[in-house]
Every structure is written in structure tokens, then in C-alpha cells.
Design a protein that fits this description.
mainly alpha; 13 helices; about 0% strand; globular
């Protein structure tokens, strides 16, 4: 209950900070988002381009855990995971404090879950993230980025959102590792303490989920009863 309460408070605090305490919105914010979305990147700081696109990688990383976790929850994960593509941690936090601890996976994987569970997906996401980080660090203007972070609400909140997604990953990680029979505190903390690439490497190396034939399980339960 304490974790739920803290996550709820974090969500409320994030909303209050983003709308009332963050730097003011700029008149050209909509035009900037439009250019970033359609690939018109001329004249935009590569650090901002990299950060914006990494915010599209994070929802896929979380989806690789949340959709599996949501199969055994009272609330579905898909509305929150889908919303995170647009607003990041603002959409994910409600799922994180509404869900219950769940260390079992008692169902069959459909094609979508198999895709999210595949190590190939993790490898592809890691390659994409590596290219984006290298592009931003190599060609980015840090002084300009800091100045925009201090004066532009969109850049400021997006940066904060990125940091929160790095910090919140352990909330789902422990149960996901347990569902795969991989209970190792050292690995848990190694993944948790390495921003972005810790979770990405986890998707590349984690054991696959074992499928359970729900039909056979139902028959066994019926026989026992």
C-alpha cells in the first residue's frame, strides 16, 4: 500500500509541476512538435531530436513488460501503455499504482505477446536507442539544450518524463523476472541502475515466458474439484 501511495503522490506531483511550476510554454511549441514528428529536423538541436525519439522507444520497453503483466490484472494494461506513446509517465503512473503484484503468467501467448517477448524486439530497440543516443551526443549542442530546458516547458517536461521512465522501470521489473524464474537481486539492481540501456539489455537477455495451456489447466482444476 505504501508503494501505491507513493506512486500516486508522484503522479499528482508530476501533473502539478508540469502545469504550474515548469517553465512557461513557448509560442512555437506546436510547430516544434510537428517538425519533430514528421522528420523536418533542420535547425533543431540533435539532442532534442534524440530525446524526442527516445520517448518513443520507452513506451515499447514498458509494453514488453506491461502487456504480459496486465493479463493477470483486474485492469488492462493497454490503455496506459498506449497513452504512454503520447504522454509517457503521465499515462503509465496510474497503471503502476493501480496494478497488484503479480509473479505468475498462466495463459498462452498470442502473436502480439510473442513479439513483445522476443529477444529480437529487444535487440532492435537497443540498436535504435544506441543510434539515437550517439546522434544526440555527437552532434548536439549542450549549451543550447540547457538554455531550452530552462525556458521551454515542452523540453523541460519531456526531459523530466525521460528521467522518470528510467527510475520507474524497477516497479515492473521484479515481477517480470519472477515470472521467468529469474530471481537474482544483483541482476535486478544492475538493470535498474543503468538508465535506458539496463532495461534494453534486459529485453535482449531475459528468458522467454513459458506458455501454459489454459484448456488443460481448466480440465485439471475441474478434475480436482
Amino acid at each position: 500500500m505504501l508503494r501505491k501511495f507513493l506512486l500516486f503522490c508522484l503522479w499528482i506531483g508530476l501533473i502539478i509541476y508540469a502545469f504550474f511550476l515548469a517553465p512557461p510554454d513557448q509560442p512555437d511549441t506546436f510547430e516544434l512538435i510537428k517538425k519533430l514528428s514528421i522528420g523536418q529536423w533542420q535547425g533543431i538541436n540533435p539532442l532534442i531530436i534524440s530525446l524526442f525519439n527516445l520517448m518513443g522507444v520507452w513506451p515499447l520497453v514498458y509494453s514488453a513488460l506491461a502487456f504480459t503483466d496486465g493479463r493477470s490484472q483486474k485492469i488492462p494494461a493497454w490503455p496506459f501503455a498506449t497513452g504512454s506513446f503520447g504522454v509517457g509517465a503521465f499515462a503509465l503512473l496510474p497503471y503502476l499504482f493501480l496494478r497488484e503484484p503479480n509473479q505468475e503468467f498462466v495463459c498462452k501467448k498470442n502473436i502480439f505477446l510473442k513479439l513483445l517477448d522476443s529477444r529480437v524486439t529487444g535487440i532492435i530497440l537497443t540498436i535504435i536507442a544506441s543510434i539515437l543516443v550517439a546522434y544526440g551526443v555527437q552532434g548536439g549542442n549542450w549549451q543550447d539544450f540547457i538554455q531550452q530546458w530552462q525556458t521551454n516547458r515542452f523540453i523541460h517536461v519531456m526531459s523530466l518524463d525521460f528521467c522518470l521512465l528510467c527510475l520507474l522501470f524497477p516497479v515492473l521489473l521484479g515481477d517480470d523476472m519472477a515470472r521467468r524464474g529469474w530471481k537474482n537481486n544483483q541482476i535486478f539492481w544492475l538493470i535498474s541502475l543503468v538508465p535506458l540501456f539496463g532495461p534494453l539489455i534486459y529485453l535482449c537477455v531475459r528468458p522467454a515466458l513459458l506458455e501454459v495451456d489454459t484448456t488443460s489447466l481448466t480440465k485439471q482444476q475441474t478434475t480436482v474439484n
